[in-house]
Design a protein that fits this description.
By secondary structure, the chain is mostly beta strands. It is 11% helix and 36% strand. The protein has a 6-stranded mixed β-sheet with strand order 3-2-1-9-10-11, with no helix packed on it. A 5-stranded mixed β-sheet has the order 4-5-6-8-7, with helices on one face.
């Protein structure tokens, strides 16, 4: 299973479409963790699984989704409803409730990944307004039978060498 995970693009259409198009044919799923600030029918979101962020208005997107790709259960939410800027505890409870293998979220604009209780959590950061390292990021998550690799990239496609993480499944 290979997933492209993006979040917090805050109205950027051309830049988002460039990233999506760069990987469209080599990933199994494309996920946007909210705050796209775009309508569902926007060309940049074609074929993308999107959740609603706190800056997304209207009823275009669900607050959370769960997708299964090659027997991997992926839970996606923006994170604002789980207070992820303060703690990830409520998010971890929800991911466990959903029996997720991977939980994707955004909102904090801080690129991070970690494992807890057998679930891998991924925040791809923001391609427009990054916090933390201040690098505009997204990531690729690749899961095989024995490991999961999460690799972060700068907006222009350059791999962030000190942000490659491997987890044993």
């Amino acid at each position: 299973m290979k997933a492209l995970i993006i979040s917090d693009s805050h109205g950027w259409q051309r830049e988002l479409k460039e990233i999506v198009d760069r990987y469209r044919t080599e990933v199994d799923i494309i996920i946007h963790c909210g705050d796209s600030e775009l309508d569902r029918d926007n060309e940049a979101l074609t074929g993308v699984k999107v959740v609603k962020g706190n800056c997304d208005f209207g009823d275009d997107f669900e607050e959370e989704i769960i997708e299964t790709v090659e027997a991997t259960s992926i839970y996606v939410t923006h994170g604002h409803l789980y207070n992820v800027k303060m703690t990830t505890v409520p998010l971890t409870y929800r991911a466990e409730e959903k029996q997720a293998d991977i939980a994707c979220f955004g909102h904090s604009h801080i690129a991070t990944t970690f494992e807890q209780n057998g679930i891998i959590y991924i925040n791809p950061g923001s391609i427009k307004l990054p916090m933390g390292k201040r690098i505009r990021t997204y990531c690729i998550c690749e899961r095989t039978d024995d490991k999961t690799t999460v690799t972060f990239f700068e907006k222009d496609g350059v791999r962030v060498e000190d942000m490659i993480y491997e987890f044993t499944v």
